[in-house]
Specification:
By secondary structure, this protein is an alpha/beta fold. The chain contains 7 helices and 11 strands. α3 packs across α4 (about 120-130), α3 packs parallel to α5 (about 145-160) and α5 packs parallel to α6.
Length: about 240
């Protein structure tokens, strides 16, 4: 599917080693605009490392990361920071919200850092939070929100600067099944509405089965997967 869409992220011959430990080796992968891809793999398989390299938080040992067709290996720190801020959105298993800010303030903060005015940031933040069902919780601080509400604020914050690529690392892994489903519904709806590319690491097969396609880390490489809620078939075996 990704070869039919505008490619947002491409990993080419990617290796990531930590000393003698080989985590990722020879990874080739691409994802197109409007495509939602699930990333499966057991704990310790390298899912987080892959997301960190794709999100320019870590440098690969070798290989190249292309964002919107731009090779990133030769970027300096300032350029990498600007590309992360303007093009990438991150959602983690734990919300990491600023406790002293309201929901609105948490979502407005990255926009202010990017140079938007307070008024612009608040208008956009209100719109995103309302779309995620949090229109009545704008002035609540994280301590006043439920787990699912906090995670939806984290999703809104990741989308605040209108990224073209969303990277999510077990975004519902800390929630119960019912809350997880609601948060994922909200995440999927807004990603599809905005035509983002999204790579979502999850251990939840039911959620993975709802995405456009599924890949898994096997023997340090990414391989395609056929999945339903009860079975996982790694292609090529």
């Amino acid at each position: 599917m990704s070869d039919m869409k505008e490619t947002v992220l491409r990993l080419e011959k990617l290796d990531r080693f930590y000393g003698e430990l080989k985590v990722l080796e020879g990874v080739d992968f691409s994802i197109g605009r409007g495509e939602v891809v699930a990333l499966l793999g057991p704990s310790g398989s390298g899912k987080s490392s892959l997301l960190h390299v794709a999100g320019l938080l870590e440098e690969p040992t070798s290989g190249e990361v292309y964002i919107n067709g731009r090779a990133t290996s030769m970027l300096n720190d300032a350029e990498r920071t600007r590309l992360r801020r303007d093009t990438l959105g991150f959602v983690y298993q734990f919300h990491h919200l600023q406790p002293e800010f309201t929901a609105l303030g948490n979502v407005s903060l990255p926009q202010l850092i990017a140079g938007h005015s307070q008024k612009q940031a608040d208008i956009r933040s209100t719109s995103i939070l309302t779309n995620l069902g949090l229109g009545e919780r704008l002035q609540h601080q994280p301590a006043q929100l439920s787990g699912g509400e906090k995670q939806r604020v984290a999703v809104a914050r990741a989308l605040a600067n209108e990224p073209s690529l969303l990277l999510a690392d077990e975004p519902t892994g800390n929630l119960d099944v019912e809350t997880s489903g609601r948060v994922f519904d909200a995440l999927l709806a807004i990603v599809q509405e905005r035509g983002l590319a999204a790579l979502i690491a999850t251990h939840d097969r039911a959620l993975a089965a709802r995405m456009d396609r599924v890949v898994a880390i096997k023997d340090r490489r990414l391989v395609p997967v056929e999945i339903d809620e009860s079975t996982v078939t790694i292609l090529g075996e």
